[in-house]
Amino acid sequence: MPSELLPRPAGTISIVVPCFNEEAVLRHTYACLSSLRGRLLARGVISNRSEIVFVDDGSSDTTWEIIDSWVRQGEPVLGVKLSRNCGHQNALLAGLRASTGEAVITIDADLQDDEGAIESMLAAYHEGNEVVYGVRSRRDADTWFKRTSARCFYRLMAGLGVHTVFDHADYRLLSRRAIGYLEQFSEVNLFLRGIVPLLGLRSSVVRYERRARCAGESKYPFLKMLEFALNGITSFSVTPLRMIALIGFAVSVACAGLAVWTLLAKLLTNDTVPGWASTILPIYFLGGVQLFCAGVLGEYVGKIYIEVKKRPRFLIERVARPRRAPEFAAKPAPRSHGRERESARQRRAVHLDASAAHRPELTP
């Protein structure tokens, strides 16, 4: 890979944490991430300007008050408060845009994704990877239903032609250039697990074991998981629309077969009820198929309806930054190179004049 395309070393990193009613687990999360930041800082892996970005996705508990208190105390924290609950994917995007790090890691507030894998992600970043996926090697902490449904979802997405990373959620590292590419996707129906692989940048995988949530409750119940999966399918694949055409063809063939069977039964037997097969069966069969196809078409039309309105994906109510720039956000003062060069020329001129005064004159 050409040297000009290699990302710079991750001197400054940002860890983006979307939060929705996470007061029960938030302090533990910050303690773990702050401890990790301290270890990386002590080893010289990151700079003291590295930050932890908490995005409050319209919480109704004391999540924002906790985040704001850390900012007022001068902790290496940047707080972003959305005006309402805009969804996990939009909260992630808001945090990515607000972050300032050369490398940005996104992780959920419940810390079921092992934060220790960040060190391996940074190592992969130093090797030239601009996207590093956190992939779950084991999911024993999840229930059987969640584990099975998640794997079925990834296989279904692959079958529909959508490129995703199997068993990867939203735990990943992105370079600054990757975030710039990501911001060029203007679609409202965000599905980052499908968009990030489309960036085409050099990527790597870091594996970790998924843990149990230490406190609070999951923000993805069954219905929300189903909505998320449906959004991912309809945002990235037109295969269901093609399936409708195949279903229509299959129904036509079945109706032709039914007509042949009805004709043979009428000609060869005397046990048929006149008009029953040719009336009842096609009505029920075609009615069910039409309702199914109308539902699929409606889902895609709904997506088009949402996209063409071009409504903002999220609105930021407040950004909490320390009033006095702490050490972690300090920037070196700009140097006046012009004045330095002028002073150097003056000093050199004085030195030459002094040397000339002591140099003996040469006679012809």
Task: Give a short synopsis of this structure.
The chain has helices at residues 26-42, 63-72, 88-98, 117-126, 144-159, 176-182, 192-195, 222-236, 239-268, 276-308, 337-358, and strands spanning 13-19, 51-56, 77-82, 103-106, 131-138, 168-175, 203-209, 316-320. With 364 residues, the chain is an alpha/beta fold. The termini are far apart.
CATH fold assignment of the largest domain: Spore Coat Polysaccharide Biosynthesis Protein SpsA, Chain A
Strand order of the largest sheet: 7-5-6-4-1-2-3-8
Let me know the CATH homologous superfamily of the largest domain: Spore Coat Polysaccharide Biosynthesis Protein SpsA, Chain A
Structural class: alpha/beta
**How much strand?**
5-15%
- What integer is the average pLDDT? 77
Low-pLDDT sequence parts: 1-8, 329-364
CATH architecture of the largest domain: Alpha-Beta Complex
Q: Tell me roughly what share of residues is in helical segments.
A: 40-55%
Q: Treating each run of at least 4 consecutive H or I residues as one helix, how many helices?
A: 11
Head-to-tail CA distance between termini:
64 Å
The tally of structural domains comes to: 2
Helix-strand topology string:
EHEHEHEHEHEHHEHHHEH
- How many beta strands in the DSSP annotation? 8
Largest sheet: 8 strands, mixed
Q: Which geometry do the CA atoms define? A: elongated
**Rg from Cα:** 31 Å
CATH class of the largest domain: Alpha Beta
Summarize the SSE layout with pairings.
Blueprint: E1 13-19, H1 26-42, E2 51-56, H2 63-72, E3 77-82, H3 88-98, E4 103-106, H4 117-126, E5 131-138, H5 144-159, E6 168-175, H6 176-182, H7 192-195, E7 203-209, H8 222-236, H9 239-268, H10 276-308, E8 316-320, H11 337-358
Parallel strand pairs: 1-2, 1-4, 2-3, 5-7
Antiparallel strand pairs: 3-8, 4-6, 5-6
Helix pairs in contact: 9-10
